[in-house]
């Protein structure tokens, strides 16, 4: 009776199979498809705000070819990711916000809410960065779609308007009159930049980090 041959180890079987595929005419090496985790969306994205989750959001460097001042507002790149929630701001351009740093790098946000969360904890969301290095902050005018200086804009909180994450947000307006017209249509109340404090942000983002500070003026 012939001796039983030992069963090859799993790794050996995989190696032999790969060799067979590569050695056969007309065949190409097979690679297992890579599974890409789905991007956060809806309330699931909001739940991640404030958690210790590392979001890969590389900055967008200044491009002198644009022919504009370093601190001027820029258009949102299609591949830019929000460092707070990981979403792609260009996909909801009407809500986008941005900051520009002294070295010319820019970060883009999916909404004014994410911008405010970022300003209260810059080093957490972008390692090695500081609030002091920020030289410009912009939000999108809800009425016109243009860029507004975030310090000078007026925001509405508590309205029926849902942001990109389908949750409470902070639509921005050029002045108090425009914000009040929005309030009459969608509810809520108008607040200036300086009135957006930790308590207000915690109502909009219940998972706000405990070490969140007031945003820098």
Brief characterization of the structure:
The protein is an alpha+beta fold and 217 residues long.
How is this fold's topology laid out?
Elements: H1 10-23, H2 42-47, E1 97-101, E2 106-109, H3 112-119, H4 122-125, E3 134-140, E4 147-149, E5 154-157, E6 172-173, H5 176-186, E7 189-192, H6 198-204
Antiparallel strand pairs: 1-2, 1-3, 3-4, 5-6, 5-7
3D architecture notes:
With 217 residues, the chain is an alpha+beta fold. It has a domain at 70-204. It has 6 helices and 7 strands, in the order ααββααββββαβα. It is globular, with a radius of gyration of 24 Å. Mean pLDDT is 80; it is low at 1-6 and 8-52. This is Nitrous oxide reductase accessory protein NosL. It holds the Pfam family NosL.
Beta content comes to: 5-15%
Number of separate helices = 6
Largest sheet: 4 strands, antiparallel
Helix content: 10-25%
Main sheet: strand order: 2-1-3-4
Give the termini separation.
87 Å
Encode the helix/strand succession as letters: HHEEHHEEEEHEH
**Main structural class:** alpha+beta
> Tell me, what's the shape?
globular
Q: How much is the average pLDDT?
A: 80
Rg over alpha carbons = 24 Å
Low-pLDDT residue spans: 1-6, 8-52
Question: How many strands in all?
Answer: 7
Protein name: Nitrous oxide reductase accessory protein NosL
InterPro entries: N2O_reductase_NosL
Pfam family, one: NosL
């Amino acid at each position: 009776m012939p001796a039983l041959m030992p069963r090859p180890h799993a790794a050996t079987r995989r190696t032999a199979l790969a060799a067979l595929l590569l050695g056969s005419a007309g065949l190409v090496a097979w690679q297992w498809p890579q599974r890409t985790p789905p991007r956060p969306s809806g309330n699931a994205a909001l739940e991640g705000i404030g958690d210790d989750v590392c979001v890969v959001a590389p900055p967008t460097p200044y491009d002198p070819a644009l022919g504009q001042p370093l601190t001027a507002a820029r258009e949102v790149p299609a591949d830019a990711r929000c460092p707070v929630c990981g979403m792609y701001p260009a996909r909801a351009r009407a809500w986008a916000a941005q900051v520009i740093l002294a070295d010319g790098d820019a970060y883009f946000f999916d909404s004014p809410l994410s911008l405010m969360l970022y300003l209260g904890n810059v080093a957490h969301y972008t390692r090695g960065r500081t609030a002091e290095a920020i030289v410009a902050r912009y939000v999108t005018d809800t009425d016109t779609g243009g860029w507004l200086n975030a310090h000078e804009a007026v925001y509405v909180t508590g309205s029926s308007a849902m942001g990109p994450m389908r949750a409470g947000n902070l639509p921005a307006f050029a002045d108090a009159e425009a914000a009040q017209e929005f309030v009459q249509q969608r509810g809520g109340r108008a607040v200036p930049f300086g009135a957006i404090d930790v308590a207000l942000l915690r109502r909009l983002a219940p998972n706000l980090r405990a070490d969140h500070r007031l945003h820098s003026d």
